Records
---
Amino acid sequence: MTAAARARERAAGAKKLRQFITPEGVDLELKIASSSMRLGALLIDAGLIIVTLILFTLLMIWTGIASRSSVVISIWMLGAFVLRNFWFIGFELGQRAATPGKRMMGIRVVARDGGRLTADAVVARNLIRELEVFLPLTMLGLGAAEDMVSGWTILAGVAWSLTLSLFLLFNRDRMRMGDLIAGTWVVMAQRAKLDSDIAASGETAGTLRFTDAELSVYGIFELQELERVLRGRDARAMREVADAIRVKIGRPVAEEDESFLLSYYPQLKARLERKLLFGKRREDKYASD
Amino acid sequence: MIPPPPAATTAAGPSFSTSHFRAEREADWIAFDELLTKLERRGATALSSEELLELPVLYRATLSSLSIARATSLDRALLDHLEALSMRGYFLVYGVRETRLNRLRRFFLYDWPAAVRAVWKETLIIALIMLLGVMTSWSLVAHNPEWFYNFVPAELAGGRDPRASAEYLQSTLGHGKAAGDEETSGLHVFATYLFTHNSRVSIMSFALGFAFGVPTMMLEYYQGISLGAMMALFASKGLGFDFGGWLFIHGTTELFAAVLSGAAGLRIGAAVVFPGARSRLQAASDAGRTAGKVMVGVIIMLLVAGILEGFGRQLITDTALRYGIGTVMLLLWLGYYYVSRREDAT
């Protein structure tokens, strides 16, 4: 991959970052959730709703047979109504501002202006969902059920309703119609476990010493890639990376890949961090040292 | 300081190192994480007062750690963890400023009526449109009953069409007490069906609002049309007064809710078309929040209407009393929404 391609890729990633400054003056750098994440969350929620509905229906059938009362039908209709309309609203009003589907995908709803997420915004964004999700389905259902609507009318209806549903693909911030109207965003809220510091453990394990010239070939991007590989603990990836580094700095294959990398990583990190303290941030190996 | 010492001496370490930094602060992060998990699981009541006092302190400590780590550390895992932790903390610390009970109280006392008052222009327009629909279909059906079939779908009519006898129509109004238990339970299901149907129509007419409000107005007009056709039908059999009572007991609430949902939709449409001095995005989100409050109210109103329809109408068969309850409900809603109150300024 060329330097230009890398820069482009990183710029594309950075475009999804949005400034979000807390009252303490720290930028939290929210990352907009991708459309595939959103779709995944929606599908999970839809699945859960259907499963709940089936269980609820079975329960109601059982109660209906036992009690022989038609009140059960009313309860079933009300329950289905509540489930359909308040699943999203109920969960998004909670502390984590996310439905089970969103939680699984690691995303959450946030007010665009940085304020708190109000109930009216949650209600507005989810009532619009009725239009975005159910309208295309209703159009299809209508077409299947009634002969008087011609094929082209159905197609036009579905196409029209799909432009509403797919609205989020056409703007940078991946806002649905509902997000637009409620003034909200959906952002990444992945939890990251506090992993151990490889450098701290590596310092004792690594016996190898590298010269300054050997350490000066890489920048921050390469360091963090190396960190990812070390945390991944995949033997093949480690072999490839270790070989690439050996070729680059001209070292023979003399030791285990892992112990080689475990001694290279802390020294490279210490060097780059020291430079950072002096105000020099070397983004990648193409930047000047 | 002396320029970079040889790498071999790093094991001895400079006086500041990121591993020292981490060792020093890690306990705070873990404590904060535990506190947040507890807060998320069981809410603020689960925390003791010491823990509550500790929360903002740990939050600020974590944010400061994040700032330092961003400037000094290159450990991606550490940065990711601190970013995620700070974000979680931010939304929990700043998320809720008042108790749930307080929020509910404020919603019912101020926010809901204020939102309804804010859309008064739209409410009037939608009410007029609906009235227009009623008058259109009334005059058409009164002249030629055949029109009825064009206006009211069969499943909504439930046999109440121009071919039905006056006795049958009378019985659907709940006057024929002779109708057995079976009959009333059938009506019960019918009422629930109507409630969910009406709510769906209301939500639809709200959601369609952003298409410049045009579909919303059409939907409300259509609602008026089916209502007018029904009224004309009953009036033609001399049951107009009774049907009025049958409709009035829950209709004042239900139709008011339908009008408000249309008004909420129209508000959004109007904000998108005429944003005024604000940006279109800002105008849409302002309108959306007002409309969202109105819609919460609409759903509550429809629930009340459903209860009135499902129970009130079954138990109360006296037409005058039905009119009375309907009027009282209408006055209650009007008074609740439009009589101004003192603390509104907040």
---
Amino acid sequence: MSIAIETHGLSKFYGRARGCQNISLTVPAGSIFGFLGPNGAGKSTVVKLLTGLLEPTAGSGTIFGHPIGSLQAKALLGFLPEHYRLPEWPKARDLLGYYGRLSGQRPDRERLTAVLDQVGLLDAAERPVSTFSNGMRQRLALGAALLHRPRLLILDEPTAALDPLGRRFVRSLLRELQAEGVTIFLNTHLLTELEQLCDHLAVIRKGEVVATGTMADLAGRQVEVTLRAEPLAPEQLAAFGPVTALPEGRLRVVLPNSDQVPDLAASIVAAGARLYELVPRHRSLEDLFVDLVTAPGEVSAGG
Amino acid sequence: MADWLLVGGFQLRELLQRRLVWLLLPASSIPVALFALVLRTESNEPGKLEAVRVAAHQQLITMMLICTCLLISAIASFAAVVTAGLDAESGRAQMVISRPVRRQGVFLGQFLGLGAGVASYAALFYVAILLTFGWTTGDWPALWWSLLPVFTLAPLVQLALTLWLCARIGPIGAGFGALLLLLFTWLGALLETGGHAMQLPKLELSGVMISLLLPGASLNGFVTGHLRDGIGQGALLQLDLNGSAPSGWMLLYGLLYLAGVLLAGMAAYRRREF
């Protein structure tokens, strides 16, 4: 497996305050890697470390084998910052040309037109940025990140300023890019974006990675079972996983995987209880996220 | 194309897009016109001794160039804060720094782009003042053209200092810090002049020491001193109210200071976190 990003114990401290600590990530090339965490968890710090905007206090990392922050690594990545601001006066086409030259390219008119078309701004190519809406600026900034054909795209909240149509447009663009072999590192707290786009995921809480793996492993593996059986005490099911008492005599059990559902049913019957209801449900990313960011502990799903 | 050239060109074009810059030009003609009016009034006063008239001209052009230098230095600091300084805070710099560019080149480009604008403005102002002076009084100070680069050097030093402070402590602190230092060192120049006029060597020396913290005032003193000496065949009054003109060493110090601040700025920008 080819690796796009690899970090080992990456840490950033601002004096005694922690930005992030001991971040070890492996992002497979060609994947859409979701980086998830609540506000203030340290996501943007990690992104800034990867893009060379911050120097790590400890640890190291590589982008396609080049040390993070090096010119070689930067030449391979395109970056859309969360809090970006574009110059107001240039025309969209001229601004893209400037960013392209800064990326070591000399983009010709054809390439500029192609990128403007790709981000849906071809009609506005000759307009100054000052006349653009927030959504158009976001797409232009995305175009600036794409212009030099990066192998890795790091996007920090790329759909934050977009309406639902704009979000759909960006999602479809990202899928196209993935099909072309571009690796996408997506930093967002919008779970719907991640569920629809990502194949790999890492969750960060208070500056530390608390879960990492494939989307299927992390979000799809756990099963939440709601059941009603009498007579049955919650403690009798504790061996299967966390049990929560619900109204009307129901219980909720979180199982590590769906293979344990028949065992759970058998165990209830073996305990002499009558089973009236048993509804298994795969846990959503939101369930996983809430669990991970509100309770200590670590989930490692390999992959 | 080199990073510094790309960034410098973009920065200069951006500066020229600002309406405020174009408003400065007509606004600057007001003090020049007032200067011409005062000179004409002074020159046409009947019965005045030639020596007194020349001394008045010397004082007028000195004051005019001091005010101009202070104003343009303050504008240079302002330009550095609202462009390069705020860019770093607003996230605009992230769009540049995350690309395969050398940070030192970005800093140098910012200085050169803004510096080209500031130096052009200072040169225009200087030429307008000297032409006004020459046409109004009929007296063309010797070598006035050759002093033009020195006159533009003071605002450039101020610009470099502000950019360096922006990279170290952020734009607001940099703006205030650079302006306070500017005023402090001009106060030093005033002490130097006063100490010289009153023949108080300790006061003069302390003024010189303060002026060394930022050589803008001394560079301006170099220009005004040489211009003054070039007017009406040298100072005709025995009492030299303007103090001694800084020597050529001060010019060398100014250049070394500029180079030093630029190197320190590039180093600070390289280490800066965005």
